[in-house]
Amino acid sequence: EFMDMIRITLAYKWVILSIFAFSILVSYYKTITSKPEWRATTALLIRESATDPSSFVFDFGASSSQQRLKNEIQVIESYSLHSEIVKSMIETGLANESSLFGTRYIRKRYRAISWFTNWLMSEESLNSQHVEELDNLTRNEFIGITKKLGNSVRVIAIRETDVLKVSVNAADSTDAVLLTNLLANKYRNLDIAGGRSEIQFVLSFLD
Q: Is the pLDDT of residue 76 over 80?
């Protein structure tokens, strides 16, 4: 049987070598042309306000903590929160230089293709094309950017705690940190506003 395997290998050696060489070339090409991906992570402590009037009316026990974490995860991963981030980036000008909007030029890992691209067109002209397009974003383009942000967001609940681990992936390290901070701040502001409206609702209910 061993001799049969050797005989078959020798008979199809060029086919085997061709497949092996092709696999090496594909792997090498993807390596030198791939863009790096960065991840920034933050932790959010989710806790019920001590002044929440509902705590004097309802008592759901320990299970309410886990349910509250699930609810907050849905909020952080929601399209509405991500769309608010996209809107604020456009309004403040942060979108003018961001990999999320395609306005920050990200070099390939080993710059094999970038050398040729830069020879044809400068980085400034590449960015300026996208900046001009931001003023005329269509609804579908806005939705596409928002979904792109949503796909880069990951939220994990840390076991036996009220802490959520939130991370955002981006093609640029600066953008990863910026998007993570924007997400945390937007969520914090939304949480504060939501808490106030809940208090007003419960108080009016009690009256």
A: yes
79-92 vs 173-206: helix crossing angle, rounded to 10: 120
Measure CA 79 to chain center.
12
CB 99 within 8 A of CB 175: yes
pTM of the full structure:
0.66
pLDDT in tens, 133-190: 666 788 899 999 999 999 999 999 988 888 899 999 998 889 999 999 999 999 988 8
